[in-house]
Amino acid sequence: MRHLLSIADLTRDEVERILDSARSLATVDERLPTLRGRLVLNLFFESSTRTSSSFELAAKRLSADVMSLKAAGSSVDKGESLEDTILTLSQYDPAAIVVRHAQAGAPQLVARWSDAAVVNAGDGKHQHPTQALLDLFTMREALGPLEGLHVSIVGDVLHSRVARSLLQALALVGARTTLVGPPTLLPRGVEALGCETATEIEAIGDADVVYVLRMQRERMESAYVPSLREYAARWGITPERVRPGQLVMHPGPMNRGVELDGRVADGPQSLVLAQVRAGLFVRMAVLRELLAARPALEVVA
Ligand code: CP
Predict the structure, then answer these.
(1) Range(s) for CATH 3.40.50.1370 in the chain?
(2) Does domain 7-124+279-291 have CATH number 3.30.470.20?
(3) Predicted structure pTM score
(4) What pLDDT, in 10s, does the model give residues 21-70?
(5) 42: part of which helix (H) or strand (E)?
(6) 3-state secondary structure (DSSP) of residue 237
(7) Does the CB atom of residue 131 touch ligand 1 within 6 A?
(8) Residue 5's closest CA among 122, 83, 169?
């Protein structure tokens, strides 16, 4: 694996290897020397709490040098292009560039402009592959083997890179997916990706996991639901709608009281904080997978 730009870059064996590697890293409580002397560049041109912090910590736990740059406060503010930013920072010989960008396809461009391994940390509505991997890890830790698992993904699928990556990842490991939400937020023809769709919330009834998506108001150019209040009333996940034994996940950040009732988010069936924790181990595993087998550049003194 040269880059991780999309779940489509991975085979089932590679997914299983990353999850197994993350499992072993979760039991280690000391800093590992794996990436000593290597530079990991974290470029976040779109806001993030979980992904940016966990990639930074993951690289540090593997003893890498870490540089983190956000658009605000950098020369991007002065109009510097993405290409010039990458060419400039490449002079420090990064081994990996982790990039989040509002533009779908930006990480592919970064991979063209740099010799580093590139990890997509979320690009527009396109992909968020490490989120899907940490979600699989969280499900596997809670429920065991993923083959045959039934996951309902609920809500704003249309604008969700998380849903696109997770749907692909679940299909890769042999799990079944049902997308549930208002018809306006279910992409037309999405069943071709190997999932079922439903517009009534009762369809979550037989799922093992209810995966709740954030209503992405910032990516909606027009009204897709009459109001958030009506959305919450018809598709919001409340204690009454979750059956005993069902587990609930959300990638964060949550709109409490819109797509997810706070009593569920904070309740015993919620895996929301386990997902955050899994992000650290899975991102360590991804960096190790990408870089450990890739020799560092020889530096001439
Ligand atoms: N799930 C996720 O990508 O969260 P952040 O936007 O906080 O990184």
Answers:
(1) 7-124+279-291, 129-270
(2) no
(3) 0.96
(4) 999 999 998 999 999 999 999 999 999 999 999 999 999 999 999 999 99
(5) strand 39-44
(6) strand
(7) yes
(8) 122
